[in-house]
Amino acid sequence: MLTTSQLTQLRKNLHQYPELSQQERETAERIVRQFEHFHADEVHRNLGGHGLAFVFSGTLPGPSTLIRCELDALPIEETNDFAHRSNVSGVSHKCGHDGHMAIITALGATLAEHRPQHGRVILCFQPAEETGTGAIDMVTDDKFSQLVPDYAFALHNYPGLALGHVAVRAGTFNCASRGMIIELRGKTSHAAHPEDGLSPALAMCQIIEQLSQLPQTLAEQDLAGKHWLTVIHAKLGEIAFGTAPGDAVVMATLRSETNQGMNALVEQAELLASRCAQQAGLEFNCRYDDVFQASVNSEEGCQRVVNACEKTTIPYHLMDQPMRWSEDFGQFTAVAKQGAMFALGAGVKSPQLHNPDYDFADELIPIGRDIFVSIIEDINGLS
Ligand SMILES: [Zn+2]
Ligand SMILES: [Zn+2]
């Protein structure tokens, strides 16, 4: 067993040396060194990038239970001045993935002493969660074919919810989201002779206006769940008073409670943008970035989290709405069929995730571990 102060120290060490998505080499090394003490039955490295999986096997056949945490930090300059502040300029753990790793390490220490009785437990450290590419890269890695779980669980710390309280629901837990990049191309001309060129200015304005109305239109069509569309950036030509613009870019974040709703949102957004471009005689291109599927909890997965909270007397709430933010954990529940993600309250006064003054609440390390231990005990038994 690792003591609470050892776990807190580990979390603070991870906090001091953050690495961005797809660059988590040293973080993964640090975790591998830590897990050497736990004598996992199998260690899998470089899964979908720097991803890791440690397998703890029982002696009897049974289901595979995967518990996931994340390796990556964010391109945010830390404004805290405590002793464990980030040593890397412009990069810091502002989503609490350092804390999630400490929780799964605590779980590794428990499994080192108490193996599952039947089936196996897979402790998974996922790369590149923040960019939405790590989970899909991991589950589609050939090496993952030996690790496909029957159950998948994860938690995310959650500022705004009382410290140590759990929030969970069956169905969509996190919304689907994706970044849409619309490029319009016309022709520049002298600003004195705009008639010689083809400016995308009006089409750009139409696209921004019509995109903003799209969630309302979809709501009237009664599609599954709620939808949001936020125009986050637009650029027209260059800053040059002598030149009429020849190109424009509009970027928007699309969000939906369901994958089906997201498909409809994407289809209609592309259609209206291409129509506006076509009417203006402009070249049109559309591409996507930061694509997240909805993370969907199964009924049984949710119930197992609830059972664990009841057994460990940890207060829990059943949410009536999904979280609006996105998470790529849904890739794991999609392959496992059963499982759930839940929120673990970081306290009502905690700065929000991705804020420059955020820091993980260390009190959550043993609480998170105890919930996962209880879930594993339920599914796999513990020796
Ligand atoms: Zn994040
Ligand atoms: Zn996160």
Descriptive account of the structure:
- By secondary structure, the protein is of the alpha/beta class.
- The protein has 2 domains: 253 residues, Aminopeptidase (3-Layer(aba) Sandwich), CATH 3.40.630.10; 117 residues, Alpha-Beta Plaits (2-Layer Sandwich).
- Helix content is 33%, strand content 28%.
- The protein is built from 9 helices and 16 strands.
- It has an 8-stranded mixed beta sheet with strand order 1-2-4-3-5-16-6-15, sandwiched between helices.
- β3, α3 and β4 form a beta-alpha-beta unit.
- The longest helix has 21 residues.
- The two termini are 15 Å apart.
- One zinc ion binds next to loops.
Outline:
This protein has 383 residues and is of the alpha/beta class.
Furnish the topology, listing elements before pairings.
Layout lengths: L3 H13 L8 H11 L6 E6 L3 E7 L2 E11 L26 H17 L4 E9 L7 H6 L11 E8 L7 E3 L2 E4 L1 E10 L3 E2 L10 H20 L6 E10 L6 E2 L2 E10 L2 H21 L3 E10 L2 E3 L1 H13 L4 E3 L11 H7 L1 E8 L18 H17 L3
Parallel strand pairs: 3-4, 3-5, 5-16, 6-15
Antiparallel strand pairs: 1-2, 2-4, 6-16, 7-14, 8-12, 8-13, 9-11, 10-12
Helix pairs in contact: 1-3, 3-9, 5-6, 7-9
The chain binds zinc ion (2 copies).
